[in-house]
Structures are given as C-alpha cells and as structure tokens.
Amino acid sequence: SWPGFVYAAVKSWNPAHAVDLTDAITATITHDMHLARATIHIGRLDRHFTPSVPGAGTLASMLARPGTARQLAEHGLTQSMLEAAWADVIKVRNECANAIVPWRIRDGELWQREISATADWMHVAIARAQHELGWPPVCTEAEMSTLTTTLLNEYRTHWLARNRLGGMHDSHAKLTSMVLPDS
Predict the structure, then answer these.
(1) pLDDT, average across residues 44-55
(2) CA 74, CA 116: separation in Å to the nearest integer?
C-alpha cells in the first residue's frame, strides 16, 4: 500500500525520526489531510479487537464468514469493541466527507470513494456481527441490505477503475455470494 511505502521510506532514510504518518501521507500521496486521516483510521480498525483474526482483518472476516462473530464472542469479543470500531468508522466517513482532493492527484477521487466504501463495508460487518450476536445493532437489517446492495454496485465501478474487465464478473459473484449468501 502507498501509506506503507511512505512509512517504510521515512523510517529507512532516518530510523530515529518519529514519523507523523498523517503528515507523510498528506505530503506525498493525498495532498489532503482529511483523506490521509481516513486512510490511517481505516487501517487501524482492527486494533479494537481482542482476540483478533490472525492474517486477516477481524471485521473483514466477520463480513466474509457468518459465524466468525459468535466464535470471537466465545473468546472475548464484546459490544464495546464493536462500538469502538463503529466510532472509528464514523471518523473515516467524516474525514472522507471533508476531504478536498486536489485535481492534480490522479487517483485522489477514486481513493476517496474506495476508503469511503471500505468504511461502509465495515459498517455492514459491525451490523452483521451485532445482529448475529443479538446485540443492539448500528442499523436495521433493511438498512444493512440496502447498503450492501449499493456497495456491490459500487464495486463494479471501483473494479473497472483499477483493473481490466476480465475477472470482474467472477470477483463480483464471489463477493455477492459472500455477503448475500441467500442470493
């Protein structure tokens, strides 16, 4: 990831330097502090979870595999962990809404839409986990379904902006069967 490259470059050039990742990402990639903050927040969502899913994002795992939330709850997942992650999802959404990406940043608007969509996927993951566990959810099942459908449609746009057409249909079908297993 570009933020990872920036961090590694700064640390390799001057290992003693305390890296302000927001400043580094703003200066070298996004040229917008809000989008840099959104990028950092989305990358740190999993820090709220103990236990976490090794080798995969905890929220992504809850989104991909029904039953993961129940397994994690048996080992210490709490509603307060989901609420803390939800608070960061809200921060990401707010930062994306406040971002003004300069026209000269080629992928800036796409990056902004992708980070915002990722926050929305995490919204769905949190709501799905809460519904699965019988905890007060951040949204109704109808709202979750509407958001999921919207995100699946956006996925095609994001795919075509980053990739060639080949593979999109298979990828979209796998994502759909993962998040809407009854479809």
Answers:
(1) 80
(2) 31
